Amino acid sequence: MPISYRSTRGAAPELGFADVVLAGLATDGGLYVPSEIPELDASLASTAPYSEMAASIMWPFVEGSIDRDDFDSMVVETYEGFSHLDVAPLLDIGHKQWLCDLSHGPTLAFKDFALQLLGRLLDHELTRRNGRVTVIGATSGDTGSAAIHALARRDRIDVVILHPEGRVSDVQRRQMTTVDAPNITNLAVQGTFDDCQDLVKEAFNDVGLRASARLAAVNSINWARVMAQTVYYVSAARRVAPDGAAVSFSVPTGNFGNVLAGWYAKHMGLSVDQLVIASNRNDVLTRVMETGELRADRVVQSLSPSMDIQVSSNFERLLFEVSGSDAKAVTELLTRFRATGAATVPAPWMDRIRDEFDAGRLDDEGTLAEIARAHAESGLLLDPHTAVGLRVGRNRRRDPDVPLIVMATAHPAKFAAAVEKATGVVPELPERAGDLLNLPERYAVVPNSLDAIRAYLPLQS
Ligand SMILES: *Cc1c(COP(=O)(O)O)cnc(C)c1O
After folding, report:
1. Active-site annotation holds for 111
2. Which of 31, 253, 285 is the pocket-test mutation for ligand 1 (most atoms within 8 Å of CB)?
3. Span 146-196, pLDDT tens digits
4. Which of 145, 235, 374, 451 has its Cα between 20 and 30 A from that of 406?
5. What is the CA(150)–ligand 1 centre distance, in A?
6. Mean pLDDT across the chain, nearest whole number?
7. Beta bridge pairs of residue 357
8. Which residues contact 105 (CB under 8 A, 6 or more apart)?
9. Which amino acid residue places its CA nearest to atom 14 of ligand 1?
């Protein structure tokens, strides 16, 4: 039986995988989650190539929507585009700690793992249906560039990406704005990432606009992203502990998309000891762990801008899962949070969350210190997000005998200013980044309002 998907708000139709990929957000404002969590194939060898593992792990989520051969070729093609043979190589940094290097995609951050696949999935489904969509997305920097590189010049897809003006790094912005393709529009919104994300949600909740512009989403509200990210948790654990012993993960996170994939991998049967949520100063996730209250503060700019988020969309999926699929209670909680900026998470849900996650924060000063320490001790250049993951992971680690795998989410050259400040060394852009610093940029600056965005959405006949 193919897995169906239901909305965390309980008032949208259950859909199959292909419809979920096209829909992004559910029509009731919820996020799609699988109605059951499949088990990992125990016969999967720890030495299997990444693509083989990926196809095997993801297949149960996809089955019924795509032919197996088509899916396997999409997966192979996706990860052939990565610059390392291992795709997500592991770096042993001593003391039973590893970095899982997720920077080998075309835009040098982990978002490529999911978006390079999602682009192909969308294209495949639109071709089958003879359809078109406009992908609208908000980005704190890395999703936008990954989406643009995955979707540029696909002729059934228009792409409109909103980024917060002046709040993404130069390399991040240029990776978006230097792509010369007729189907790409970049908008710099006068606001924060949360404002951009709200505009996207507003656009989706405008039923007329959603239909006339045929909106689709590639933000981490799209289930396919979470799904694709489960793979590197499994591949990393299998390589570090081929005997199946438990490992721990520390994951720098803001929107809760990456570490949530770790939670799903665990519930598919992966042996996981700790899942550590590593926050920067925008520590909404760490605070909810400490206080049991979900409360959005003002977003402050940090050295790890891809985590400058106070409304962590994917947390809704976890709330739904730990509530025992209580869509009504989840809807009430999130409606209150939307209206007042704060909501108390029921104690039994918090108990389950605290059972499975640890959390900690690191400010900019700590981030610079950690980058400097790693460089001085082992010559490594860490990107600031990875530094947050490593330091918080070490702080929260309970058992030094359990391998700790830190998700290294970006290449240091994407955040060169911070790395230079910490170490005095300017990290070099790898060749695959192209001639980023010299190409002309294309983007429009727009006010923080849906009406301003609307003008850029191609209406489709
Ligand atoms: C997007 C991003 C993160 C945060 O990912 P979540 O989806 O919030 O878990 C961390 N580091 C980098 C480099 C990113 O691009």
Report:
1. yes
2. 253
3. 999 999 999 899 999 999 999 988 889 999 999 999 999 999 999 998 899
4. 145
5. 17
6. 95
7. 275
8. 81, 82, 83, 111, 112, 113, 116, 146
9. 306
